[in-house]
Fold this protein.
Amino acid sequence: MGISFESLYSDIAGRCGKLTVGKKIVKTPALLPVINPHLQLVSPKELRKMGVEAIITNAYIFSQSKQYRERTLSEGLHKVLDYDGVIMTDSGSFQLSVYGEVSITNTETLSFQRDIKSDIWVPLDIPTSPAADRQTAEGELSITMQRLAEAKQVFGNDAPIAGPVQGGIFEDLRERAGREVTALGFTFCPIGAVVPIMEQYRYRDLVSVVMAAKRTISPAACVHLFGAGHPAMFALATAMGCDLFDSAAYALYAKEGRYMTVHGSYKIDELADLPCACNICRTHTVEELRTSPQRDRLLALHNLHVTLAEIARIRQAITDGSLWELVDERCRGHPQLLAGYRALLLHNTELEKTDRTSKRRFFYRGDESCARTEVLRYQQQLSRLRLGREVLVAFDGGAREEFDDTLLFKPPFGPYPKELRETFPIGQSEIPEWDDAMVRQGCRGIRALVESHPDTRVVVSCSKRWETILRQEVTDCEVRSEPV
Ligand code: GUN
Ligand code: ZN
């Protein structure tokens, strides 16, 4: 029993995997819609029909509810919600972060979650505010860690308990939290207290916090990004290695009359048409949707369709190896997402370690593509080329008799022997007309080649157009420039 996770395909640090909880299986990445028993716009049974394999609800609400408490204890959560997939329960920590206190202890909430037959239980962790200073974050993390240790001690190592990773905005505390939950044996690790960071569009901070936590969480653990509900950021989070998301946003947005798209949301009053392929949008006019007495429910269904479709899109991208292209596309929807994407690219050295070796393709989509993991890896591997004493790198591809070897040049990667012409990434990369950024990056490949082959004399022939960039990037090789 317990919780286990298996990664089947990967791309960047993202995984398509299989989460096993007891006898139930969830394909990841996955979205867990949040169910509030008191306001159900879409029932768990309908969610199941939409292919939803796991949902999340709040055990604290059930424990405090006159209507539900006893019934759930006697009949079990699955019967009460009429749902036979995986049900994860949260502890009341969210209420703790909003109201400052809850009338339940760690072992009480865990016992309650066990007794209502929840599939995944969450201890009473403390979601540290991103505004908290270091001392507060450290103190709260220590309490969270004590409670996680207590959870293991009281309920045993096989109990299906999640180990939330806290630590505020402090990278070293997130690293410590990841290390400690791993040492305690947790295989299901939510990254916590990121809701306020995302609400404030602080995607750079999100990247710093998630990357720090992922550095020390076991690669064999399933990682849940707690409270991440907007589909525009799923691709970015998946690229960092988050496997699960939970969304209350589909319902909360609907109640506020907001219509989700993968590029951002609209107020329903701002929409001139319904730019979506789901059955709600194809069977209603925007006017009908706006004025329907069922508006909130219809919007919630649309929002769910968009959110679930994005998860499917991400799974396909991981299978193809085109997740970087999807991240690039989605992160241009908001300037702060673009800032997050650029921050992620600064972690390319770390991300390269888990990135796969071959992909369906590499599409160059602008300057950002120069920092991708495939470019970094290609340039690192140039040191493996066996070269003669005199080598020509020919931008125009023409060989010259007097050299032992002639290499071709493809930006943003750099020099390559013709034998690699059909292999990834040289053969599967599509680039537009050469621009300064990609040629500059390609020249760094030449520099890597020069530095890793001290016994080889490298000569580069290029047109006048690229000579300045080449001389700036590669200072110790002979340049023969030819008229454009
Ligand atoms: N929901 C959103 N964030 C959190 C968190 O940090 N901890 C718990 N338990 N639930 C959450
Ligand atoms: Zn729709």
